[in-house]
Design brief:
The chain is mostly helical. Helix 1 packs antiparallel against helix 4 and helix 3 runs parallel beside helix 6. The longest helix is centred in the last third of the chain and has 37 residues. The radius of gyration is 17 Å and the shape is globular. The termini are far apart. 28% of the residues are buried.
Amino acid sequence: MITYLVQIFTAGIASLGFALLYNVKGKRLLVPFAGGIIGWILYLSLTFINNEDLQAFTVTIFLALYTEIAARIIKTPTTTFLVPNIIILIPGGSLYFTMSSAIKGEWFNFVLYGKETIFLASSIAAGIMIVSSIIKIIYKVKTN
């Protein structure tokens, strides 16, 4: 249990840190901090799926919707909140092992980890694109 609490708090701090890197200031810092925490709670709660790509895709859809809504309420560009919130899902471990295997000349592991990294990154990108497209369609229909 304590491990999960540490992971959740760390996800919030990571999102907060990237928000600071993007010059988010004041009350706006609560959006990425809360998004990191809520996103990681959702990610951990979806472990029953047993598919990391589907977990990341689902959490990305939630975080993209969350950031779209928060950005409209606070009147801030969506990417200001989206990047710090999505950063917690970046496949750093598999990317590291992909590059490490390439450097060591372990081509089987390179392909194995590379495939994992590409699928995970594609799941994240697909989630962002779907939400962004739906929001744009809704906005266009609403303004016409």
